[in-house]
Amino acid sequence: MKVVFDFGGVLFRWHPPSFLARVWPHRVADEQVGAEVARTFFQAYGGDWGAFDQGLADAATTADRITARTGWPREEIVAVMEAVPQELQLIDGTAALIQDLKAAGHTLHFLSNMPEPYADHLEQHHPLKDWFVSGIFSGRVKQSKPYTPIFELAVEQFGAQPQDLIFLDDHPENIKAATALGWQAVLFTTPEAARVSLQERGLLPA
């Protein structure tokens, strides 16, 4: 079986409310405020940030656009953007899951909405080529989830029929898009819950 991993919030830590509370303590007093600020900053990964995700705008242009849209000082926008790589810490439980799936004989791929600078960082700091046979970063293919073209590209690149792919992602809209195209999918919440779901599907021993 081919198992496809999302990255942010699945293999690498990505929790914007707590991230912004750490990076912007003068603007974000707690995670509740952080959730509100995140909606403005990241626009649910549409708008300015969505273009950055898709490789349609570079980091400098994205900072300019967010500054113009929000009125926040550009140097503060840049500080958030430059802090993202440090936020993307490896989730140990998911790394263990990857090793166990590989040991069980499954083929692993990734499908991640990730701007190019952060994709470069992850490749430089983690053994992605050891973990995954192949993968797709949105910023390099100019497409992103939950839109159909990136899933179709993945099916072609991964050399599989949709029904032979099991996709782990933490965003319900991405899961919905994948299943609509015939993929199997697991909504990721924690590594432990994902492990149980994969055991129930017979991919891992109980």
TrEMBL record:
One of its GO terms (molecular function) is hydrolase activity. Pfam families: Hydrolase. SUPFAM superfamilies: HAD-like. InterPro entries: HAD-like_sf (IPR036412), HAD-SF_hydro_IA (IPR006439), HAD_sf (IPR023214). Keywords: Hydrolase. The keyword Hydrolase applies. NCBIfam families: HAD-SF-IA-v3 (TIGR01509). This is Hydrolase of the HAD superfamily.
